[in-house]
Fold:
Amino acid sequence: MAYEKLELLINGKWTQGTSDKSQDVINPATEEILGTLPHASVADLDAALASADKGFQTWRATSPLARQAIMDKAADLMEERKAAIAVNISRDMGKPANEASLEMDFVIGCLRWDAEQGKRAYGRIIPARIPGQRQMMIKEPVGPVAAFVAWNFPASNVMRKIGNALGAGCSIIMKADEETPSAAIAIARCFQDAGLPDGVLNLVFGVPAEISSYLLDSPIIKKLSFTGSTPVGMLLQAQAAKRMIRCTMELGGHAPVMIFDDADIAMAAKACAATKFRNAGQVCISPTRFYVQKGVYEEFAERFTQHTNEMVVGEGINDGVQIGPLIGARRLDVMQDLVDDAVSHGAELLTGGERLGNKGFFYKPTVLKDVPEEAKIMTDEPFGPIAPMSSFTDFDEVIERANKLEYGLASYAFTTNGNVANRLGDQINAGMFGVNHFGIATPETPFGGVNHSGYGSEGGEEGITAYQRVKFISKIGV
Structure:
């Protein structure tokens, strides 16, 4: 299948832009150059801003039913093109093609959900204190949106922004990640082919800090949505605060998994290993700290390691591959440093712990046992194929350890005790909590964290509400 033609989308036109800057897009499994991505110039960004401003006036005046028709048609086109888009996602960032295909299923589901939910921007009538007075609250789109996303889910990160914005009636300037651009471009082509009015969706690329600073300085932008690391999110929030731009921040995580001695250990070990190494561990809600009760600790570690050793590592487009490469060479050194630090603190290396081969950015799936809390991997988000585990004695100990970090995105537990599950749900410090499974992200449910994992939600009715504002209207005599 052919690789996507790399272009910018500004005011409904595909263009190479007016900048003389560009960058190569690299396949992390083979290190081959896939294509050359143009960067947007200041003039291109000015054109995108003007286009988004005009596009917003058109889109907000379009009825929710008419918006849905266009969004559903775009979803139909994505279904038709899913196989090609998925292969290019695998080429861009290395994940197995079947994972990329499932990602596209999620994308299509999000778009259809947002298209339908956009018709439900319900207001309300508020009983008045004065005879003849009519009081009402209505919801309206907040305005043009600037959105910036990470590389690890090149399609779904993009669609979470676009679907919510369009469903709410907003226009959007999307800066997708430069390392994994093909899915964003393919998605934007589907919208254009579905008849989306010019300017409602603009797509740009460039040096991230330069693009974000320029867009957030513009009075046209009324909303920022960001998916990425906590340090970058904090910087963007500070920039947005200068102009009182409202924000949705989906930031980093370091998800604890608490496995109690009453759990189904065979099921838990299999599910934990499969989910830990999904996308080579490059997932913000990936289980990353495994706390196992002492009575089942040895059995869990043995089963988990066995599943890990059975996994097939390779280029994502090849049949049977379960784990692809890391996104870039820079991540290999990070993985090795985390492993070496844990071992130096007394952890036992059960498997992995080194680079695989010398071509492509592959790192062996790694299991570390008896990892102390002082090791860096227990406080720094690994974002890679390393599973650290340690044992615990009782509920109070494990909930304290699970809640010790400033992160609060996802948490998980395995137990058959309903009382324990309920107590964990009440006390865990996270925006999302899964018990006996990891399926906490669906189009119809809120997705988001607390504390240093950000704020606001994507998905469900909360996702679209974040792109709307409330207006109160009070009338007498008319």
Remarks:
- Residues 255-442 form a domain with the Aldehyde Dehydrogenase; Chain A, domain 2 fold (CATH 3.40.309.10).
- The chain has two domains: 8-251+452-476, 255-442.
- The two ends are 62 Å apart (CA to CA).
